[in-house]
Amino acid sequence: MRITIITEYFPYSQRGEIRGGVEARCFYLGQELAKRHKVTVITSWQKETKRKDTIAGMAILRVGPHHRYTHKGYGAFVSRLRFAKAAKAMAARVPADVIDGTNFISYLPAFAAAKKQGIPAMATYHEVWVGAWIKNKGLVTGSLGTIWERLVLTKPWDRIIAVSEFTKQKLLAHGIPAKRIAVIPNGIDALLYQGSARKEKNPTICCVSRLTPQKRVEDLLRAFTLVKKELPHAQCIIIGTGDEEVSLKQLAKTLGVSSSVQFLGFVREHKRVMQYLKRSHVFCLPSVMEGFGITILEAMACGVPYVCTDIKPLQEITHQGKGGFLCRQKDPHDLAAKLLQLLTDKRVYAQKARECRQYGRMRDWKRLAKEVEVAYQKGYKNVGEDS
């Protein structure tokens, strides 16, 4: 098959400069698919990247004007629309058998380009935000996002791949026929998790996340102040960038824990991120909005127990807390209590670590790539059928 993948952001090189779950999925699945198919990735251009490149057998085409990694404000929305227009034009010109849009802004370009070529229009859906756009992005950007996504959900897609049952149920609620939805979760690259690493000397909590309001990293910082009262030598590592980075650093200073919190920013090589995870004792994700939560799966594959919020997608992927603890949303006290239980109770920690090793490495991208191939093939059969 000739497969075109449209994604807003994509790593710069084989090292895997990954900043989010969508990029991770495209990067690792694309590599596996490229072993058997011709894969073209259409993504945005940043000034430090090449317009045309080849990464792990994938042809990379970067389009549009410079597109910063930010989703904040009206200017960011305009920049995303420019990318969408350029991506649509490029995808319409690249001969393909399947076109897959993989995030919010790439769905309509993928659909339009696929219909122009008369081939399957596919979408990989991580989250449905209808009803939450204004709360998450403010009145102007949120209103535009709502209009865009409602338009996306009215299209007669040949196949939609949902990354979780939670996302599938939301798609069904918005009228997408069940026969057009396949659930294929995110996975991991098993090779990255082989071997172990020496743990940090002091109790260490690691968070790998985009620094946006929905991720609620502020709750981790507030919980960490409570952890420090019981474990004075504890430290916290935060990996990731985003619009909240400056305010979070200021909050750490205000709370008096800045000397024990490392903000490492964007770690370019994904392998290095996994090394930080392996050396940590506990992983934490206090997010209140996720479509999947791939970083939890990565932590489990590293054998690192986690504490995350009890939102439905995270309940689903952890099988209700296998390998770690679920805590109440926006509750730093409950979060701190769960972190302390893992950091101070050796018996509980050992049990959760065993669960991580048993469960965390079951989802390999190689197996999931075959499921994606089947979904693409079924989408091809659906072309021209009524929904």
Q: Mind telling me the CATH class of the largest domain? A: Alpha Beta
The parts where pLDDT drops under 50 for at least 5 residues are none
Q: Ends: how far apart?
A: 24 Å
- The DSSP helix count reads 14
The CATH topology assignment of the largest domain is Rossmann fold
Average pLDDT, rounded to a whole number, is: 91
Q: Going across the major beta sheet, what is the strand order? A: 3-4-2-1-5-6-7-8
Name the beta content range.
15-25%
- Return the string of H and E elements: EHEEEHEHEHHEHEEHEHEHEHEHEHHH
Q: What about the largest sheet?
A: 8 strands, mixed
CATH H-level superfamily title of the largest domain: Glycogen Phosphorylase B
Q: Which word captures the global form?
A: globular
Number of domains: 2
CATH architecture of the largest domain: 3-Layer(aba) Sandwich
Radius of gyration: 21 Å
Percent of residues in helices comes to: 40-55%
The total beta strand count reads: 14
Q: How would you classify the helix and strand content by structural class?
A: alpha/beta
Describe the secondary-structure layout.
Blueprint: E1 2-6, H1 21-34, E2 38-44, E3 52-55, E4 58-63, H2 73-93, E5 98-101, H3 107-117, E6 121-125, H4 133-137, H5 139-154, E7 159-162, H6 165-173, E8 181-183, E9 204-208, H7 217-230, E10 235-239, H8 245-255, E11 261-265, H9 270-279, E12 282-285, H10 294-301, E13 306-309, H11 312-317, E14 324-327, H12 332-344, H13 346-359, H14 365-382
Parallel strand pairs: 1-2, 1-5, 2-4, 5-6, 6-7, 7-8, 9-10, 9-12, 10-11, 12-13, 13-14
Antiparallel strand pairs: 3-4
Helix pairs in contact: 1-14, 2-3, 7-8, 7-12, 12-13
